[in-house]
Amino acid sequence: METKEKKWEGKTGGGQFGQKFLLHFLKHVHVRFLYPILYLVIPFYLIFASKGRNAAYHYFRERQHFSVLKSAWCTFRNHIIFGEVVLDKFALLAGNKRQFNIDIDTDEVIHHQMKQEKGFIIASAHVGNLELAGLCIPHTEKKINTIIFGGERADFQKKRDEAFDEVNINLIPVKQDMSHLFIIKEALDNGEIVVIPCDRIFGSTKNTICQLLGEEAELPIGPFRLAAQLEVPMYTLFIMKEGNTHYKTYESRIPAHDELPNSTQKAIAMASDYTKLLEKIIIKYPTQWFNFFPYWKESNKGTI
What is the pLDDT of residues 53-98, one digit of tens each? Predict the structure, then answer.
């Protein structure tokens, strides 16, 4: 399947009026009161959004090896949970933060690195709800820079910038001219944190092939090569939804593979380690995989 068919834009939907309404409403109302509405909306969405629906079904049927009925049910649950995560993000943007209960990983590997002078990279993924990172990572010790999709509407992006600035998070949009790469390097040189989603290639031709759930998948090699070349530590952070507004974090260190002779080989090995950690998470939380497009290199044949 061609790359252009696999593209997932990731732009926040709802329109200007809908987004403003949600932000105003969620300033005063607990987000869980909006969850039931999803059970009315999602069935219609599944009927008309066939590409995302088929990709999700294929993931459950072919990669998770669920039965036909379980795959269909999980496709529905997957969209419901994604809707809840989106609502949680709007509640966060609206400033209604106290309603979230987050269990921090007992190892606290990232918290230990926060006390070091050196900057580091957090390899994230489109699972769970990474936008809660500002509530999980101590933001008084290091600035957090998060790579985001650069195509949001200006007013929505401004609101997002303001909300995250309160917890010392700087949002770095991905740009066509690749200028974001210079900002990333500068942040790391300054001893800051850079959070990069490493499960989508964003149109880059510099990719590596990894095994994920028994099938080949393309991952961007850039973040791992950057960590290897600059010799900065790299971690994974997954913030997974346990129920309603209850989340749990999973943190791990990705080995630097200093025994390998060059940065390219180190980056490939690090990408493989990252994929194994991601695989553990999506096996544990199968319905929180939010890549709604044909992800694996094999063709997406599953339909419902």
Answer: 999 999 999 999 999 999 999 999 999 999 999 999 888 888 777 8
Which two three-digit tokens encode residue 251? 């943190």
Closest of 192, 251, 256 to residue 228, by C-alpha: 256
Question: Token digits for 205?
Answer: 């031709």
CB-neighbour burial class of residue 191 (10 A; exposed 0-12, middle 13-18, buried 19+): middle
Cβ neighbours of residue 24 closer than 8 Å, sequence gap 6 or more = 94
pLDDT digits 0-9 by tens, 122-144? 999 999 998 888 777 766 678 88
Distance separating alpha carbons of residues 300 and 21, to the nearest angstrom: 36
Distance CA 208, CA 272 (A): 9
CA angle 114, 127, 30 (to 5 degrees): 85
Left (φ > 0), alpha (ψ -120 to 50) or beta: where does 207 sit? beta
Q: pTM here?
A: 0.87
